[in-house]
Amino acid sequence: MAGLDPLIHAPARLQLVTALSAVSEAEFATLRSALEVSDSVLSKHVSALVEAGYVRSRKSVHAGRRTTWVSLTPAGRRALHDHVAALRRLIDAVQ
Amino acid sequence: MESNRGAEDPLAALAAADDARQRLTTGLRLPVGFYPALAGGVAVQVGAAAYGIAAQTVTGVAVALAGAAVFLGVAAFLLHRFSRTNGVRVDGLASQVVLVAGARASLAYLGALAVGIVAAFQSVWWLVAVASVAAGIGCALGARHWWRAYRHDPAAHEGGASPRTLGLLAVAACLGCAVLLVLG
């Protein structure tokens, strides 16, 4: 499947990067609620995408509580755009 | 979400991804009193700037600087509240609030500021007040217009100046005013 990005082809990863494309940065807990997954699942996908350079994460402290903020990098945004375009081509080809 | 069905079915994969994005954005709320506070902050800034420019004195520059500080304080507070309430940061919103991005809002702001400055030079203070309020309302309406567009298509409207860029611009603006204050 030409143009499909194996790093974000899995539904969980595609949902994660698509959700992130709507905001500049999101708190880990907010993402977890939006994606309806566990901490460990989200953490695993975020780590993999950070390693690929598609996602950036940073630690922050608010009112004594540690939080993690996650954002899409320009490379991640491009990858999402290309992947969605490839999926749409695939859909068009089938239809 | 862990199902692999979406990977096999592109249509289902895209639909699930859109659902996830919608779940994240439909719950976003502006802080209570967002528009009146923004309008008030802009009105104070425009009024102070008009007075300061027309006065052409050290006191005038100090008043203009104080007005800018009030506006930046209100903007920073509103953006912080938005971020804390929703657990997300949206640079497009920050640009709307701090830089008055958007053609209509910019036009309303600059037009009202120009009227305010001319009125201040003529010492027509009621017109300065009217122009300040008009600038505030124009900016608030511009922000509301952007918010509606963002809710309709978040990915297309989330972009804007980063907090670092906005911080640098604010520091540069304040330093410029401070230099004017010292030279004056």
TrEMBL record, chain A:
<feature type="domain" description="Winged helix DNA-binding">
    <location>
        <begin position="13"/>
        <end position="91"/>
    </location>
</feature>
<dbReference type="InterPro" id="IPR027395">
    <property type="entry name" value="WH_DNA-bd_dom"/>
</dbReference>
<dbReference type="Pfam" id="PF13601">
    <property type="entry name" value="HTH_34"/>
</dbReference>
<dbReference type="InterPro" id="IPR036388">
    <property type="entry name" value="WH-like_DNA-bd_sf"/>
</dbReference>
<dbReference type="InterPro" id="IPR036390">
    <property type="entry name" value="WH_DNA-bd_sf"/>
</dbReference>
<protein>
    <submittedName>
        <fullName>MarR family transcriptional regulator</fullName>
    </submittedName>
</protein>
Automatic annotation (TrEMBL), chain B:
<keyword id="KW-0472">Membrane</keyword>
<feature type="transmembrane region" description="Helical">
    <location>
        <begin position="32"/>
        <end position="54"/>
    </location>
</feature>
<keyword id="KW-1133">Transmembrane helix</keyword>
<feature type="transmembrane region" description="Helical">
    <location>
        <begin position="92"/>
        <end position="118"/>
    </location>
</feature>
<keyword id="KW-0812">Transmembrane</keyword>
<feature type="transmembrane region" description="Helical">
    <location>
        <begin position="60"/>
        <end position="80"/>
    </location>
</feature>
<protein>
    <submittedName>
        <fullName>Uncharacterized protein</fullName>
    </submittedName>
</protein>
<feature type="transmembrane region" description="Helical">
    <location>
        <begin position="165"/>
        <end position="183"/>
    </location>
</feature>
<feature type="transmembrane region" description="Helical">
    <location>
        <begin position="124"/>
        <end position="144"/>
    </location>
</feature>
